[in-house]
Amino acid sequence: MRVVVLGAAAGGGFPQWNSHAPACRRARRGDRAARPATQASLAVSLDGEAWVLLNASPDLRQQIEATPQLQPREGLRSSPIAAVALTGGDVDAIAGLLTLRERHPFTIYATRRIHAVLDVNPIFEVLARDLVVRRPIALGEAVTVAEAADGRRLAIEFFAVPGKVPLYLERPGEPPPIIEGEETIGIAVGDGQRRLCFVPGCAAMTEALARRLTGADAVFFDGTLWTDDEMIRAGLGTKTGGRMGHMSVDGPAGTLAAFSALDIGRKILIHINNSNPVLLSDSPERAIVEAAGWDVAHDGMEVTL
Ligand code: MLT
Ligand code: MN
């Protein structure tokens, strides 16, 4: 299985368009330790022919132009992108669907709940329904999304993770509850031999999630924030990570602690907010995550499983 990280950053990207915070200023100045990153997405393929995108970020057009594997190879109009699977309905997961208009046939895999969000928003009708199939998947249902010439199959399965409704569906004035259902999911991708899990947003580790991740050859996991209150302390916002549906990397209930006893091949942080110092390759926090056996995803990173 081949994996390309199309984008490593959380919603907003790095640098974020309206951020003048120190890290974003470093990224804009071309500081080599503050490498820019687009919004989180993976491309996965069995054989390098057909590719399945895990989330379609607002930066998808730029990501395709930066990724030769995803560019047209034949005819006058074509694309190796065969499908998009969605982990939720947030802008950073779905806005790139609009980039995929222009009458290219592909399949959108999402939970019924997230399809309902797309269905009620007429802007997504730019994806002509005679060409773009909207396929609902139930939690735990394995679906073949690609087949290689030699008969090998790439299958995906959705699993619930603790999360919340998309930001734009929150009710004003009340913090959204953390729920485990069809709003925020993780995606397991398997080729019969290897298994990858993609969980760009997760509010907490649960026993069921720990069981699901155990034994995976690679897990790309929510690296949004280093500490729960980092955006407040940096003067960048008023929300904690918990309020945004993201567990932190550090701390007793954080990602490093939650994964320390899990048997997983490669552990890779993704969906990293521009306030998280792990984005800076010269930060003490980057050294801590690497010492704990983690990699930090970067745009263009390739992983072969
Ligand atoms: C998140 O992951 O918390 C969301 O992407 C926030 C957003 O939509 O900006
Ligand atoms: Mn996000």
What layout of secondary structure does this protein have?
Layout lengths: L1 E6 L14 H7 L12 E5 L5 E4 L5 H6 L15 E5 L5 H4 L11 E5 L1 H8 L12 E5 L6 E5 L5 E11 L15 E12 L4 E5 L7 H7 L4 E5 L7 H4 L7 H4 L10 H5 L6 E5 L13 H8 L2 E3 L5 E3 L1
Parallel strand pairs: 3-4, 4-5, 5-6, 10-11, 11-12, 12-13
Antiparallel strand pairs: 1-2, 1-14, 2-3, 7-8, 8-9, 9-10
The structure holds D-malate and manganese (II) ion.
Manganese (II) ion binds next to loops.
Family: Belongs to the PqqB family.
InterPro entries: Metallo-B-lactamas, PQQ_synth_PqqB, RibonucZ/Hydroxyglut_hydro
Keywords: PQQ biosynthesis, Transport
Radius of gyration: 18 Å
Please tally the β strands and state the result: 14
Large-scale geometry? globular
The structural domain count equals 1
CATH class: Alpha Beta
Please, what is the CATH homologous superfamily?
A: Ribonuclease Z/Hydroxyacylglutathione hydrolase-like
What's the mean pLDDT score?
98
Briefly note the structural class of the backbone: alpha/beta
Give the DSSP E fraction (strand runs of 2 or more residues).
Answer: 25-35%
Major beta-sheet overview: 7 strands, mixed
Molecules bound to protein: D-malate, manganese (II) ion
How would you characterize the overall build of this protein?
The protein has 305 residues and is of the alpha/beta class. It has a single domain (2-296), classed as Ribonuclease Z/Hydroxyacylglutathione hydrolase-like (Metallo-beta-lactamase, Chain A, 4-Layer Sandwich). Helices cover 17% and strands 26% of the residues. The strands form 2 sheets. A 7-stranded mixed sheet has the order 6-5-4-3-2-1-14. The protein has a 7-stranded mixed sheet with strand order 7-8-9-10-11-12-13, with helices on both faces. A hairpin with a 5-residue loop joins β2 and β3. The chain is globular and about 50 Å long. It binds D-malate and manganese (II) ion. D-malate is lined by residues 10-11, 90-92, 167, 201, 244-245. This is Coenzyme PQQ synthesis protein B. May be involved in the transport of PQQ or its precursor to the periplasm. Keywords: PQQ biosynthesis, Transport. InterPro entries: Metallo-B-lactamas, PQQ_synth_PqqB, RibonucZ/Hydroxyglut_hydro.
